[in-house]
Amino acid sequence: MSALLPSSSLFEQNKIRRLYDEATETWWFSVIDIIQALTQQPDYQLGRNYWKVLKHRLEKEGSQLVTDCHQLKMPADDGKMRLTDVATAETLLRLVQSVPSPKAEPIKLWLAKVGYERMQELADPSLGVDRARELWLKHGRSEKWIQQRMMGQETRNKLTDYWSEEDFPPQPPPRGGAA
Questions:
Q1: Which residues pair with residue 60 across a beta bridge?
Q2: Cα separations in angstroms, 101 against 16, 74, 147, 166
Q3: E strands, 39-121, where?
Q4: What's the sign of the alpha-carbon dihedral 75, 81, 82, 83?
Q5: CB proximity list for 75: less than 8 A, separation 6 or greater
Q6: Which of 138, 135, 136 is nearest to 148 (CA)?
Q7: What is the mean pLDDT of each run of 10 residues along the chain (179 residues)?
Q8: Does the reported pTM lie above 0.70?
Q9: Helix (H) or strand (E) holding 7
């Protein structure tokens, strides 16, 4: 996978870590975060243990769900990137059905909302830009910072488009030290 963009989303005060793969246009969600929210576990370790037991049970049943889960590095609470079980929204919707919890229906609705927002952005990319601006403001970024960030991305896009159109060959990385 290339160009994985980490972010997180909130579901009823639970942080759900996710990654967006630009190459495949796929969202990957942390399975443990979803399980923790579903089972209302206050502690990450309890959610992790619940997933471990559920995963073992599903494997014994021959469920395809466990096979459809992958491991990707996501930011952990300690700030380090750690391998975490992840799944697509489709797999999570199937997984949610395996967890006896009154929280299952709200998670299904939340996942549907995330998917719907993405479909809207595919139809009208300006919605994605607007959402990014809103998120940056929520993260405390200034209007000036947001404007510089967006202009920097536009400049980078124009440059890479120019290189593609002019058929520039990729340049080897510079060798160490010789100037």
A1: none
A2: 17, 26, 43, 56
A3: 70-75, 81-87
A4: positive
A5: 6, 17, 81
A6: 136
A7: 53 77 86 87 86 89 84 86 90 82 74 82 87 87 91 87 78 59
A8: no
A9: strand 4-11
